[in-house]
Amino acid sequence: MLPKHHVAATGIVLNRDGKVLLIRRRDNGNWEPPGGVVELDDSLEGAVVREVKEESGVEADVIRLSGVYKNVGAKGRYVVSLVFLCRAVGGKPTAGDETLEAGWFSPEEAMRLVSRERMRIRLQDALSGREAPAVRSFMTPETRN
Predict the structure, then answer these.
(1) How much is the pTM?
(2) Taking every annotated instance into account, which residue ranges of this chain make up the domain Nudix hydrolase (predicted)?
(3) Sequential DSSP letters for 70-115
């Protein structure tokens, strides 16, 4: 039997001033780069462009893949997340169905606002300037209730 992973795509979007796009999620109130599940009919780059637009109102182009992350979490949640460094090409940050707020932040402000450690690592990897994508696995022990 093959393992079942969800595939997610996240965009680390920069504007021409070098500021980072963040959204504040409606479901948990966290500030994060926009992203979500890759749909069956999406290309990988198409998924991140779609998710950025849906969650923030910003139109983006992909520059490059900046990281691949495997998350093995509690309660049987398995996700492979692809993170793309992107450039803003249109639109403006606006709230949407899944977001309370969206805005541009300096890299330092963005690192302070993003509270989830694994998402901060993704942001740091994307902004590091390294050419090769980061590859990381995050394993959380299974918890039993």
Answers:
(1) 0.92
(2) 4-127
(3) EEE-GGG-EEEEEEEEEEEEEE----BTTEEEEEEE-HHHHHHH--
